[in-house]
Specification:
This protein has a domain of 84 residues. The protein contains three helices and two strands, in the order H-E-E-H-H. A two-stranded antiparallel ribbon has the order 1-2. By secondary structure, it is mainly α.
Length: 149
């Protein structure tokens, strides 16, 4: 992800070229391939599916144009993937922020619940004491009424 974020888009000979922070350049790679083609130094690879079988009948210039077109399509695909990765990274950042906020809210609510439970226990004790006192006072009232009669 950090490598993708460090990529810069440049334009060379009408081809979009992505360069990463290491210094890779597809224009340099293309130049090296062109030099090897001119020298006849590229080995024939029957398993190579970059250039279809009719590519053997194509001239060097046509092969270069074909490879440049293929490169352009691949770079567009890469740019789309990079865009999607950045979009997903942004979405992940937003979700992480929301998660952090939710966790903080959860912690705050847990603290509030704890305080409310302790208050509830306190009021239960006070209520029980008040009920006991009320019962004693009622018994005193009954005793006093008997005394008065």
């Amino acid at each position: 992800s950090s490598k993708i974020r460090n990529m810069e888009v440049q334009s060379a000979d009408g081809i979009t070229v992505l360069e990463d922070c290491i210094g890779f350049s597809s224009t340099k790679t293309i130049s090296r391939i062109e030099e090897k083609l001119k020298k006849g130094g590229l080995p024939d690879c029957p398993d190579d599916d970059i250039i279809p079988s009719v590519g053997n009948e194509m001239g060097a210039e046509a092969q270069i144009r074909f490879l440049k077109a293929k490169l352009r399509v691949t770079q567009e695909d890469l740019a789309n993937v990079v865009f999607e990765c950045r979009k997903k990274d942004d979405e992940n950042q937003n979700l992480e922020t929301r998660l952090k906020d939710t966790e903080e809210e959860n912690t705050r609510l847990q603290h509030t619940i704890s305080m409310q439970q302790s208050r509830t226990e306190k009021y239960k004790v006070l209520s029980q004491e008040a009920n006991k006192k009320s019962e004693r006072l009622q018994q005193e009232v009954i005793a006093l009424e008997k005394v008065l009669q």
